[in-house]
């Protein structure tokens, strides 16, 4: 009866999703209304201009002094060119980091110099700024080679006659737009050609392609997968550039109109519960970038988009970041997410304030850091908001909400912990979903277990991005495959990629004593698996243990292996008990016992060699300590049950 009610609840939830408001952003105002609402470019002052010394006196002094100090070290910066051979590395070796290191550094230096000149206002940073602008404008491609089309007529080099817009070309436009806004008159005093070049290049590389050429990130793909973080992230930079650089009011309003339609293509299919299938590490460029757009639109229209913050989906999208937290350091990291992502503290605080969520504001305050002089390259405009909010931000209490239970039916993710508001004890997360999610891993039925805020059974997450990562060889990378997750190999078969490989009969239940997710994983496997059903339940018995139970029916009984991933050594103590030697960096060592049926399964432990280019990112996150525990079923049956009980010793 309880399961029937749960299925009914899920069904009603999806009816609600179907009926929810569409086109929240683009459906409010016509293009003409937008043109009337938008503050004219010449009158728009989102932040104090350079000659407004009283305005800049309100910027946080410690932060600004640290930026000026950092910028001083850049006065004689030797702006590097980017040779063709560096761009060709993506095709020749698969390496993308060498090119990106040079490109990213140049933009960070330029952004630092701009803010230093605005604050100090002595002119000593103007020539380095001009050098940076001119150098970047002369680049053949503002993006990165990893984002070039996979075609022989590119092979790692940009076709400059066919400009298109990806993440970092859009971000480049933002740097140039704010340079124009803050130090434009100083640039004109040297030569009017600098600002003329800024607009020419931005119009040619950004505005014209965006208005006249379809881009894949703007809408769902051929499989129907909704747009991911690229959509709002690029739009936020497009919006910056359009508002700051476009003098023609009609063109400016037309760009904003199209941009709002593109954003709704991201927002409309987003789950009502706010669940981000890209994970917390990408939330900062997904839901958070949507917030960036809304915040900037409000600055440009005297808060004509404030109504968006009252929408329940928007509120849930914001709250995902603290709902998916494991501990101060660790976050949920299914798919390509990072287990220890950086938190954009001030942006999170601002988003929480916009939706009137005190918990989110205090969560953001928890991650605030002293002034370092480093200017964030990604989402550059967030630095500007941060400079003028420090008085209230520094006074906000720091607190982590750490909810005891979270259920996200839109992405079929359960999150549960022993104690509300505490990292003490056990934490469990498990997922259903399908194998065509954004940044997908083949991981239907996967789960993780943490103890006192530190990992026990893990999801590897992603390693270093290379040419293989987003191409047709993605699933040649081991950590993207189901047999390197906490999932079974059935009749020798692992989960393939694709939207049709998914969980069914998904049910969630909780009480004060437990939280449980159950799902049928059979549909996530190919025909070779011959699985009629594979019903998995992941249950946290609060204060006691975690129980994993698989009940299955097969058409044939072949090789079956259950896989468990951990970042600690493991050994068999005796038949029926395997021990993981939990050794957190800043916690007490403890053995974790995994109880299993020794008459049914034989375990082995292997250390995964981390030798490939992609493995560098795994080592950075976990160290050279990845172990896979393989429980091989000794006498497979067509009808059987497998159970693991996981608990601290």
Description:
The model is unreliable at 1-5 and 12-19 (pLDDT under 50). The strands form four sheets. An eight-stranded antiparallel sheet has the order 9-10-11-12-19-16-15-14. The chain is globular, with a radius of gyration of 26 Å. A hairpin with a 3-residue loop joins strand 11 and strand 12. With 649 residues, the protein is α+β, with helices and mostly antiparallel strands. It contains 19 helices and 19 strands.
Estimated share of beta-strand residues: 15-25%
Q: Shape, please?
A: globular
Report the structural category.
alpha+beta
N- and C-termini, Cα separation: 36 Å
SS summary, helix count:
19
Low-confidence stretches: 1-5, 12-19
The overall strand count is 19
Helix content range: 25-40%
The pLDDT mean sits at 95
Main pleated sheet: 8 strands, antiparallel
**Strands ordered across the widest β-sheet:** 9-10-11-12-19-16-15-14
Cα gyration radius (Å): 26 Å
Give a concise summary.
36% of the residues lie in helices and 18% in strands. The chain has 19 helices and 19 strands.
List the main descriptive attributes of the protein structure presented here:
alpha+beta; five-stranded antiparallel sheet; disordered N terminus
Which helices and strands, and how do they pair?
Blueprint: H1 2-19, H2 31-37, H3 53-56, H4 61-72, H5 84-92, H6 97-120, H7 126-137, H8 167-190, H9 193-212, H10 230-245, H11 249-267, H12 280-283, H13 287-301, H14 312-323, H15 345-354, H16 358-366, H17 382-387, H18 390-395, E1 405-408, E2 413-417, E3 426-431, E4 434-435, E5 447-451, E6 454-457, E7 488-490, E8 498-502, E9 504-510, E10 514-520, E11 531-541, E12 545-554, E13 560-566, E14 570-574, E15 577-582, E16 590-595, E17 601-607, H19 615-622, E18 627-633, E19 639-648
Antiparallel strand pairs: 1-2, 2-3, 3-5, 4-8, 5-6, 7-13, 9-10, 10-11, 11-12, 12-19, 13-18, 14-15, 15-16, 16-19, 17-18
Helix pairs in contact: 2-11, 4-6, 6-7, 6-8, 7-8, 7-9, 8-9, 8-10, 9-10, 10-11, 10-13, 15-16
